[in-house]
Amino acid sequence: MKMLKDKIVFISGASSGIGKACAELFAQAGAKLILCARSVEKVQEIGNALKAQYQTDTLALQLDVQDRKAVDKVVDDLPLQWKKIDILVNNAGLARGLDKLHQGDVADWEAMIDTNVKGLLYLTRKIVPQMLEHKLNGHVINIGSTAGILAYPGGTVYCATKAAVKFISDGLRMDVVDTPIRVTNIQPGMVETNFSVIRFHGDQQKADNVYDGIEPLTADDIADIVVYAASAPAHVQICEVTVTPTHQATGGIVHKEKK
After folding, report:
1. One of 7, 20, 32, 162 is an active-site residue; which one?
2. How many C-alpha atoms does 10 have within 13 Å on its Cβ side?
3. How far apart are CA 218 and CA 45, in angstroms?
4. Taking the alpha carbons of 169, 170, 171, 176 in that order, is the dihedral positive or negative?
5. CA 156, CA 119: separation in Å to the nearest integer?
6. Residue 195: inside a domain
7. Of 83, 75, 80, 5, nearest to 36 (Cα)?
8. Residue from 5, 128, 124, 119 nearest 64 by CA
9. What residue numbers bound the domain in which 144 lies?
10. What does the pLDDT look like over 42-94, one tens digit per residue?
11. 5 catalytic, yes or no?
């Protein structure tokens, strides 16, 4: 982890779940953190706590990655000492609804496409050129999903967005193959965060039912993989990691123990 000390890490969607867990592990490793989320109060609180506990520098910023102009402004307005971003963790993402495609809510589709695909593209387009300009051994780490490998009922649009994350990761890796920049796509299966609460528009009971009868992954499990990939030697590129709970084979094939 020594190689992460004083590295500048930009994490989107850092206010909870996987993003928050990544922030803590990177802080433990001595990295400097730019924490972004729609709720600036939450990332300020997280940043202050990590700074106090690990004596690392943090910068909390309000950002909705769906807003391209806001992405441009946040990156352009970074203080000089925060301009050289070494690691970009494209974590901001969401699922909305579990309807059949022909019954789906278009607003839900737009939220998923705008966040999971366009938001990731906006940040990548803005930050990768700066990595190249500053001649950094940069690293882009995208949080994809097993849903991007194999679709499941009711998840058509969400699965499509995560398939896009996979192919954006693969394409970017080709585009920067002649540079020191590495690209990693992490594809988790069932992770118990607020993911399902958001998918079901705040219905906690429906969210709890998703994980009933199975021990899901945790945000810390995914953060471990993210930090492992980031801390590999500069000549080692971990291109893709797919990880599921032991009792999950794909997005739709899950064994649950009966109570």
Report:
1. 162
2. 28
3. 21
4. positive
5. 19
6. no
7. 75
8. 119
9. 2-190+218-243
10. 999 999 999 999 999 999 999 999 999 999 999 999 999 999 999 999 999 99
11. no
Asked, for residue 253, whether it belongs to a domain, the answer is: no
Name the active-site residue from 20, 158, 211, 258.
158
3-class secondary-structure state, position 141:
strand
* Distance separating alpha carbons of residues 112 and 133, to the nearest angstrom: 31
Write down the residue that tokens 């992460």 correspond to: 4
Catalytic site includes residue 152: no
Q: How far apart are the first and last CA of the chain?
A: 42
Starting at the earlier edge strand, list the strands of the sheet with 58-62: 58-62, 32-37, 8-11, 87-90, 139-143, 182-188, 240-243
Assigned domain for 197 exists: no
Q: Say which CATH number the domain at 121 has.
A: 3.40.50.720
Instruction: Write down how long the chain is.
Output: 259
Under 8 Å between Cβ of 257 and 213: yes
Q: Which amino acid is at 7?
A: K
Both tokens of 60, joined, read: 């909390």
pLDDT digits 0-9 by tens, 136-193: 999 999 999 999 999 999 999 999 999 999 999 999 999 999 999 999 999 999 999 9
Quote the number of domains for the chain. Answer: 1
pTM beyond cutoff 0.85: yes
